[in-house]
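Worked Example 4.2. Consider the chain below.
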Amino acid sequence: MTDPTARATAPGPARPAAPSAPAGPAVPAVPDPDDNRRQVLYWRLLARLFDPEEQASLESASLAVVEDIGLPPALLDPGASVDSVVQRHPELAAEFDGLMTPEPEEDDARDRAAEVRRAALVSKVLLNVFSTGSGAVTAEQLARWQSDAGWLERALGCRPGDLRGGRAGAGGPGVSPTGTGGGGRTPDLGRLIPAIGPELGSLEASLVKRMRLREVLADPRLAARLTPSMSLIEQLLRDKDNLSGVALANAKSLIRRYVDEVSQVLRTQVEKATVGDIDRSVPPKRVFRNLDIDRTIWKNLTNWSPEEERLYVDRLYYRHTSRRTTPQRLIVVVDQSGSMVDSMVNCTILASIFAGLPKVDVHLIAYDTQALDLTPWAHDPFETLLRTKLGGGTDGTVAMALAQPKIAEPRNTVVVWISDFYEWRADELFESMSAVHRSGAKFIPVGSVTSAGRGSVNPWFRERFKDLGTPVISGHIKKLVHELKTFLT
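Applying the procedure from the previous section yields the following structure tokens:
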């Protein structure tokens, strides 16, 4: 007879314990008030972006949130620029810098109150930049938009102008030399520039087209409010033949300002690695900027007077700056058709900078269906741009006819060809480019040299250049600067 207790002690699968009876009805989770505040601000942002009309309930709720967290109500005023808000509340400037860059991952709990504050500031920047309205645009409105776009770039951790392809590096206060904003955050520029830069450039171009530009230029007071940008320069270059008198003078002044600003940035990039090695056989130039302070002090330490606590200097020492260089010829061929205007401006300026380097012989050719040798003005990008005529078709064979005779010593020659390569005599042009490459000259095809890194290249040419062993450079202008410095060193 089986023991009745054996069944209870025998090994087997454990039975789940019976659930305990609930102590009472379930209590719903209380929503976080900060989450509600943040959602109100972002709902208002979306509503405003898609419909400029006010939603009374969202506006009143957002105003209550902004006042509750101690921010100024001016953040909700669509007519107030970020500049005007910061001028009245200077403490906010540091908060805008790096505002939209990724936060470092931490194990601590989320700071929901900080997220609400961040939402209010982000909404202000995005609405001012992306809600551009319709109708005619004044010079003051364009200047305000450009300023707000600069604040957006700072919020993304960049310098004002970096993403739009404008005056890269012309940052304002609070922007670090490396191009990052405050807070020590580093944005992923490889992701931001392709995604946001072209959109900002397109918005700016749209605003410029909505301006009565000729009327603005004819009024010195209004023209003085314009801030030079790539979009504005493009319109000025296209319309320069229709301007005269005061309007033409103001247009030239704006082009000159833009050229000078971009030249300063590109010159810095070129000079970061000067061409050639130091030539110590050439005596150093005895000027103050070459004075070697440390070596001068070290060499004169024996003349130190302890009683007078004074160092008497018998001899000054200077740094050698002359460099050994091999004469090089740089031939820059630029497609000046309408689709390549930003490359035309950047490369014209870049050519002038290299023209100022020792023993670099620069030649500049611009073309559409006709070619123009701009070499006599290569040292002056302003005069060069005034001689260009944007638009028209593209026939690179006429440019090649001017470029090939200039290749006297192939081994000491680099040919930079900037174009989107949408050519109507493609086979003939590519064969001549291959011949230049086979001759021993360095051939560099460039599809985009904008500051924003945007460009389109004919895939037929792209594949053939790759097979030739000279892949197309496409992206930031720094890539071209690096290639040229490598060849000329």
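The longest helix spans residues 245-271. The radius of gyration is 31 Å. Compare this with Example 4.1 before moving on.
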